[in-house]
Fold:
Amino acid sequence: MDLAEIDENGKGLQFFGKTKVERLEKVEGQPNVYLLQTTIECERPNQAVPKAGQFYLIRSAKSAVHYNRPISVYHSEEWISNEGKKKILVQFMILEKGRGTGELCHMTLWDDISIIGPLGTPWPLEECREIAEKNPDQAKICIIGGGIGVAPVANLASNLPAESYDFYASFKSGSYGLDLIQPKHLFVTTDDGSCGLKGMLPCAFTKEAVKAAGYELILACGPTPALVYVQKLASELGIKCYISMEHRMLCGLGACLGCTIETTKGLKRCCKDGPVFDASEVIFDPPVQRRQPLTTNEEPDLSVDIAGVHFKNPTIASGGTFAFGQNFRGVSDVAAWGGIVSKGVTLEPREGNHGERSLEVAGGNMNSIGLQNPGIPYYIENLLPGMIGLGPVVITNLAGSDIESYVEGAKLLDKTDCDMIELNISCPNIKAAGLAWGMSADTAYYCVSAVRAVTKKPLMVKLSPNAADNRPIAIACIKAGADAISLINMIHGVAIDIDKGKPFFNNVHAGYSGPGLKPLALRIVYDVVQEINKLPPEQRVPVVGIGGICTWQDAVEFIMAGASAVEIGQAKFTNPNVTIDIQNGLKEFMKSHGYHNLSEMRGIAQVARHNKAHTDEKGRFADLKAMMK
Structure:
């Protein structure tokens, strides 16, 4: 915290605490825009009052997300209560976009809100007022708001003299956030023509119109394409321009350095140096070339072929979470899956681990099942036929402790009608001090080679995230005869029972899985695909991504990272219809983004890696020092 943000006693001028939802309503005519009102009771008289352009970090106190969301102030009022307490009424206009904003938009009256602020650099109000005073009968200030970006500029406008500015507002449909402004001229555009001019901002905000108006100052907030357009036009006409930028934030206080943007003066923090910036200093990324959406009559193809096996869609129920396909039949359409992986089966029956077996933890769960299963002969005789009758591709997860058990199990499975074997080499190798077969390239090669020699079934090898580097292990598996690679298995973790003062699980270590695993899993999949792509085309094999996949967006990420399909585990426990939800989301995404089939988007993140030139070390340290001031 800067010294300017503390009082003479060293206490912060910003507010951190809980407030109540006093008003929450959907904005009329908008499907996903809400107005939220709360009142902050300041602890001290000198605590900061929000200025136009500033924001608060807010979050539902009952939230399932970790971080507050930065929401600009739409309107605020300050007063002193009968008890002599300074109070600040604050209104936010919120676009429901993700989990955090979704929670905010669907709270109920008098729910608690966690709130921090006010934060950020405000609009240059004094500069605006000077221009307004200098031109009392003319509107020499131009204010622009696009979509939800209308909120912070409407706050700015309401703090300026009436008719001292022109206001341009651009929306997809209808209009909102304009009740508190008093412009000399109001220009509204809508994509669908429901209000004002039909079209986007450039329909009204043209170079000719700006020159004719003789604006001395432009202030804008909205979608990036609109800000790029405004920046370019202002530069060409030599008009001073400020823009309010948006960025994901963690602390909002300038401490974590996680919300930087590129500027001509180096990296700048959006939360602290902004969000209001001199437009001439902001460097925007080059625009992304969008594909044309599919026509209404076109349906994207979700099918995929892996190791010669055809899957009707890329969602596979992962081993260990779907048993043998029958348990979920009462609550979901099991036939909707592209494939089903059996619970891990071993040559001999296994009782599994004693003691506690599962524990919910942040971002997922830990489990220590111990490969409980009835043994391969029983599986083949009694369980596999039922799996095959379900319809999806049937994959048998083969586990073992020594090479003999792997080989004998593979021999038995080779004579069955299962479509594919998933070789689980995350199991402990009892002849190598309990280390998993997949922990080194040499042991992985030995195990895969031995199994490959006794079966003609398509062989997919499942790798462990606990290896130091899965890239050489994946290549070794391919050279040993693997037809596909699946990864990752669960990561090892430990939990402590604080009441008993001992490890929660009898085996101490347990497997961690769930949404919190996704970034690690995605990184390993990305790296392994990148390594496989170095092989000659005829030697490359498909990769199936596993780890924390819960939504269609997760599936898209894995496919763009190079995965041919995805295995879904824990998400089935809370959403038995997860495969249908992911398939529907995939279809809509592919339609809107112009993908006819999965291969058109598979691995595109591999070839679209960010390759922006960086400043030298000296320059970067200079930027860092400047931000830390």
Observations:
- The first strand starts at residue 15 and ends at 20.
